[in-house]
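re: ur question from yesterday

yeah so i grabbed the chain u mentioned. its 311 aa long if i counted rite. heres the sequnce exactly as i have it in my notes:
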Amino acid sequence: MHSSSGWSLGYMYADPEVKDGKVGYVTHSSNPGLHHLDLLSKSYKGFVNVSNYGCTGTMSMAYSSVNKHVFVECYASRRSVALLEMDLATDKIVKKWNATGDPYASPDGRYIVTLQKSVNETANLLLDSKVYVLYIPDNNSPAVFKSKFEIPGGVSKLVFNKKTGQQGGYLAYISLLYSDKIAVIDLDRLESYASKISYIEGVGSVFTAPGMHAVQRYLLRSGPWLVSPATANNSVAIINTAAGELHGMVMGVVGGRGLYAVHSPVLHSSVPHSPVPRSPVTSRSGAAEKIFWSQETLIVLALFSFYKAIA
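ran it thru and got these structure tokens back, copy pasting raw so excuse formatting
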């Protein structure tokens, strides 16, 4: 299939758990379905057409390892209009959900969390900011609706992290486009709005302006650390998820956007397991403090400006 003139966007999804890693699925914002690829033979297998569900394109995807279903963002007129649940064993749609936005699957495959944000980019005005949560009860059933709620500030990106000191359960950390906060959702406490949402404050802001397109606030989790650029402040927020609070701000990173975690070799020291000091940061109180990494080093890439190394 071919797209019409103009911009288009899509993603490829492949996973060792999906048909033993032998296939891939490709979305396309201007094609009404999924392109099915054979990764072993490097060949095109076919097209899963979802135009009957009102989709003129597809975009983001999330896979549940519990029921082996994939959740596909349905596009129409270049905007998100629904979420399709597809059984990968048959490539058939089993449910059309009235949930819009980017879907994310929790690491245990039990939850599908969808972030919906709508912005008038000409005026730089936030119109909508919602979260939808689906729950997968067992491996033989489709998802069930769990919760829907609004989060002020414009939901942007999401990462999951296991609860500290517990055998099970996850927290969802959500960056906000028009706020200096990170929202935290307890997926085990969705029945109560007051208890399911908390915030980590003082994480800086993202630069936005009228006419800017598809601005996001990116998140990266590396071990107990959560990292997010604050482009309006030329800084990067470092969050300690174990403590549930801001650890500090790395200053002087101009235009930081992309984030990568790199595993570094174990550094030898005369003191066993002694942490290795890295970059100085500014704490919320304004005092200088140190960030310590032992097994992992975080690298922040400034994609649209010079990268300024922090000594």
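noticed a couple things. The first strand starts at residue 12 and ends at 13. also The CA atoms of residues 133 and 147 lie 5 Å apart.
anyway ttyl
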